[in-house]
Amino acid sequence: MLIEEDGRCKASSSAGQSPYKWQNIWHAGLPPKVKLFAWRSVWEGLPVMSRLVARGMQVDTIFPMYGEGEETTAHMILECRAASSIWRHYVLRLDTRQVDMGSFRGWCCLMQDKYKDSKWWDVFWSIAWGIWLKRNIWIFEKKERRESDILYKAMGLIGEYEEENLRENILNTNAAFHGQILGIGGVLRDDSGAAVVAYCSTKKGSFAVDVGEAIAMRASL
Fold it and tell me: Is the pTM of this model over 0.85?
């Protein structure tokens, strides 16, 4: 059940909330550092000002870039004027301030039921990572990063990772026949030729050579 409140939709306390689907992070086609960032974000583990205060540090909780409210994970990634502009005007065309779930995790749980395409989440986490970098550059270097730079970096992360995986990993498979026994196996190698992981098994039956090789390839994937 959603309640209208000041032009925004807010989930009522009686509304059921789906558990977060962690495969949106761990199965994403993104570098490990971005996956770790995403995981920490959903767990409210990023060192934003409100979390630092909760851990006993004496810091100002106001968002350091624009001073427009308490810096929570949701405010930093979704709600501050720079972040909301990026979400609204580029790629995903997302109005992140339309729905208020009270936490970043709550927002992600709601959105995962609406956006089920894994590629959508790859783009989302890449842009969120860029916003986090923009925030950190402002805090530690006192520099403003342009929105176009964030989008360029985000799209580059996806392309780089997919290209790297295609380039570095080679799967070799084979099939061997002995009477009514088919032996199948596969070895995944990196770009240096070193084995990363191997698989082997047997199957009973009479198979044509091309069918046996197809079975080996399928089983090894």
Answer: no
